[in-house]
Specification:
Mean pLDDT: 85
Distance between the termini: 22 Å
Domain Hydroxyproline O-arabinosyltransferase-like: 80-375
Helix content: 25-40%
Subcellular location: Membrane
Protein name: Hydroxyproline O-arabinosyltransferase 1-like
Structural class: alpha/beta
Order of helices and strands: EHHEEHEEHEEEHEHHHEEEEEH
Strand order of the largest sheet: 5-4-3-6-9-8-10
GO molecular function: glycosyltransferase activity
Number of domains: 2
CATH class of the largest domain: Alpha Beta
Oligomer: single chain
Membrane topology: Single-pass membrane protein
Largest sheet: 7 strands, mixed
Length: 379
């Protein structure tokens, strides 16, 4: 396990940087006409921003981090690196293990000419965990205590800022994914002509929340429809654009969380809105690809989609009828396994349950059957 270089910045300096950040955002929020920097970032003064975006230690890198072009083979210009942010909880650890299993399977099926490159779990706990040798991992610092206000997802943009600055990412493109994604088949680089490729979420509604979003995306930046109905994941984007977007995404996320009205309006999807705003501020458009992902139980068939996102619970009676909102006689819900991983060989759903749910459980079962020491891990 190696380390990468970098200046050491004291914890107190990092805290000072965050304090200055929050003062800056209070000023921004006080006026709807607060000026933005010429490059559309909501950045701190230069001297402070440099300190703010540096990890406080030399981050740990486990084997394989940043890799994408195998040694002895030419670098593939359209290859993308898959990156997943995660905490060190049991809950996200087992999801990452399943996700990485299927990433490797999909990449292998893509062959030598496939565009799936390397993989990194960006672990924002500030310390290595038990899976450093199993999953290629970059250890990033978490936000200072209390700054996320219990909304742990705020660590995601901060973790990406650190990774993009410090890791040796050989690919020119990035796929931002999540622990609860299962890759069904090889994913091509769906970005094109300077546009990122992103999944559109029905619940991200910029037009509906225009009065709120105008605090961060002022009228002189263009129509509110310039903000795409996306989050940061899944998104395939060129690395250069993401390096510009990431600090803005981080700053807008903190500013939104600091503003009570915005926090109330967006709730658990606040960080997704922040990414959509940051992307628009930098003029990065997105090809909206509904075929990028399905979300059981609402999507009934996998079809030609690339990713299964199991964010929703799947509850059915024994006749195969959905009982969403009520615990079913048969169920698969990732939240049932917050304290320990799911056991191997989960029971399959009853007849009549949609193919998407059946496929999801079968894929979880295959992963857990083949991942070493699955039953031994209890956290």
């Amino acid at each position: 396990m190696g380390c990468c270089g970098g200046n050491r910045f004291s914890w107190s300096l990092l805290l000072l940087s965050f304090a200055v950040a929050l003062v800056t955002y209070n000023l921004l929020l006080a006026s709807s006409h607060a000026p933005l920097a010429s490059d559309h970032r909501l950045l701190l003064p230069t001297t402070t921003a440099a300190a703010f975006t540096q990890p406080r230690h030399r981050p740990f890198l486990s084997s394989g981090d940043g890799g994408g072009a195998e040694e002895g083979r030419p670098r593939r210009r359209r290859a993308f690196h898959t990156a997943v942010t995660a905490s060190d909880s049991v809950y996200t650890a087992w999801q990452c293990r399943v996700m990485y299993y299927w990433f490797k399977k999909a990449k292998g099926r893509g062959g030598g000419d496939g565009e799936m490159g390397g993989f990194t779990r960006i672990l924002h706990s500030g310390r290595p965990d038990a899976f450093m040798n199993e999953i290629p991992t970059f250890v990033a610092d978490p936000l200072p205590d209390g700054l996320d206000q219990g909304y742990i997802v705020l660590n995601r943009p901060w973790a990406f800022v650190q990774w993009l600055q410090k890791a040796n990412i050989q690919e020119d493109y990035i796929l931002m994914a999540e622990p609860d994604h299962i890759i069904v088949k090889p994913i091509p680089n769906l970005s094109k002509d300077g546009l990122a490729a992103a999944f559109p979420f029905f619940y991200i509604e910029p037009k509906k929340y225009e009065p709120v979003l105008r605090k961060f995306f002022h009228e002189d930046k263009g129509p509110i429809t310039n903000i795409d109905p996306i989050g940061n994941s899944p998104v395939i984007i060129d690395k250069e654009s993401l390096m510009k977007i990431a600090p803005t995404w981080m700053n807008v996320s903190l500013a939104m969380k600091k503003d009570p009205a915005t926090d109330k309006a967006f709730g658990w999807v606040l960080e997704m809105y922040a990414y959509a705003v940051a992307s628009a501020l930098h003029g990065v458009g997105n090809i909206l690809r509904k075929d990028l992902m399905i979300q059981p139980p609402w999507d009934l068939e996998v079809g030609e989609k690339f990713i299964i996102h199991y964010t929703y619970g799947c509850d059915y009676d024994m006749k195969g009828k959905l009982t969403y909102g009520k615990i079913g006689e048969w169920r698969f819900d990732k939240r049932s396994y917050e304290g320990k991983p799911p056991p191997r060989n989960l029971p399959l759903p009853p007849d009549g349950v949609p193919q998407s749910v059946v496929t999801l459980v079968k894929m979880v079962n295959e992963a857990t059957a083949n991942i070493p020491n699955w039953d031994a891990f209890t956290g």
